[in-house]
Design a protein that fits this description.
By secondary structure, the protein is of the alpha+beta class. The protein has 2 domains: 2-40, no CATH class; 59-114, no CATH class. The protein contains 3 helices and 3 strands. It has a 3-stranded antiparallel sheet, with helices on one face. It is flat. Residues 55-115 form the RNase H type-1 domain. It comes from Trifolium medium. GO terms for molecular function: nucleic acid binding; RNA-DNA hybrid ribonuclease activity. InterPro entries: RNase_H-like (IPR053151), RNase_H-like_dom_plant (IPR044730), RNaseH-like_sf (IPR012337), RNaseH_domain (IPR002156), RNaseH_sf (IPR036397). This is Ribonuclease H protein.
């Protein structure tokens, strides 16, 4: 895991205490799977997660950001009304940055666009 990050993320530094980091990652994994629950020991329940419309008279903004291996990043988003109809969308190249920063760019540009 760390070797991959070192190869593809210029800002990444190995943790000083890898065992503690692994345990934190494991706790995060279990916390993320809290909605999957066993049904009488037969396996896991799969739930369909889908877009939900905002309350009447409002719009909902959904955004995303991504980064290529070389660092080139972009963001995009769309706005839909309470009826589910598409109201607008955007896409933007944001330069070289982390995936996290690209996500933040998506939120910022989405809020600007929604104004």
């Amino acid at each position: 895991m760390w070797r991959n990050k070192e190869l593809h993320d210029d800002t990444y530094q190995r943790p000083l205490q890898p065992v503690q980091q692994i345990l934190r990652n494991l706790n995060d994994y279990y916390a993320a799977n809290v909605f999957n629950r066993s049904i009488m020991g037969r396996g896991w329940e799969t739930r369909l997660i889908c877009w939900k419309p905002p309350i009447d008279g409002r719009v909902k903004l959904n955004t995303d950001g991504a980064r290529k291996v070389g660092g080139s990043a972009g963001c995009g988003g769309l706005i839909r009304g309470s009826d589910g109809q598409w109201r607008g969308g955007f896409a933007k190249y944001v330069g070289n940055c982390s995936a996290y920063v690209a996500e933040l760019w998506g939120v910022l540009e989405g809020l600007r666009y929604a104004r």
